[in-house]
């Protein structure tokens, strides 16, 4: 999609530190890491928010969580947090669906 930051990363128009790539997904390091490991897992297909990942898209949603588990194992993370922010009030700032994989430090709950 034009003018989407993460589509530009997928198309290699903007650089990113890529950790994982398949035909459907890309995962790269967050530019502003909030934990020792902070990786964003994104579908190559553009969706604005997680709310669009409805019953028609269970396969891609499942692939995202499976990728998170695989990357966490590769990073030898036993404890980690997966976050998908949906819309502004939840903290979404980039409107291309992404899952945050955070780990390597103790996490607080509830989140702010
Ligand atoms: P969210 O606030 O949930 O939409 O998350 C967006 C994330 O994208 C934030 O954690 C940002 O630090 C991250 N981000 C923004 N621009 C880039 C970029 N060019 N490369 C990697 N991560 C980015
Ligand atoms: Zn996009």
Distance between the termini: 31 Å
**How much of the residues is beta strand, in percent?**
15-25%
**Approximately how much helix is present in the residues?**
10-25%
Structural class: alpha+beta
N to C succession of SSEs: HEEEHEE
The second-level CATH architecture is 2-Layer Sandwich
Tally of separate helices: 2
Q: Can you tell me the CATH class?
A: Alpha Beta
Overall 3D geometry? Answer: globular
CA radius of gyration? 13 Å
Q: Name every ligand kind in the structure.
A: adenosine monophosphate, zinc ion
CATH homologous superfamily classification: HIT-like
Q: Tell me how many strands there are.
A: 5
User: How many structural domains in the coordinates?
Assistant: 1
Largest sheet: number of strands, sense, barrel closure: 5 strands, antiparallel
As for the CATH topology, it is: HIT family, subunit A
**pLDDT < 50 runs, ≥5 residues:** none
Going across the major beta sheet, what is the strand order? 1-2-3-5-4
Give the mean pLDDT: 97
Structure description:
The longest helix has 17 residues, at 58-74. Helix content is 21%, strand content 22%. The chain is built from 2 helices and 5 strands. The mean pLDDT is 97. The chain has one domain (5-103): HIT family, subunit A, CATH 3.30.428. The chain is globular. The structure holds adenosine monophosphate (AMP) and zinc ion.
Could you give a quick summary of the protein structure above?
This protein is of the alpha+beta class and 112 residues long. Helices cover 21% and strands 22% of the residues. It has a single domain (5-103), classed as HIT-like (HIT family, subunit A, 2-Layer Sandwich), CATH 3.30.428.
């Amino acid at each position: 999609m034009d003018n989407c930051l993460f589509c530009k990363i997928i198309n290699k128009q903007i650089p990113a530190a890529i950790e994982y790539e398949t035909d459907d997904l890309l995962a790269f390091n967050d530019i502003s890491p909030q934990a020792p490991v902070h990786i964003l897992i994104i579908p190559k297909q553009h969706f604005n928010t997680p709310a669009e990942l409805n019953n028609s898209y269970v396969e891609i949603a499942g692939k995202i969580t499976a990728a998170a588990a695989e990357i966490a194992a590769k990073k030898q993370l036993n404890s980690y947090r997966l976050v998908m922010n949906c819309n502004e009030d939840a903290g979404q700032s980039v409107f291309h669906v992404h899952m945050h994989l955070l780990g390597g430090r103790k996490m607080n709950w509830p989140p702010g």
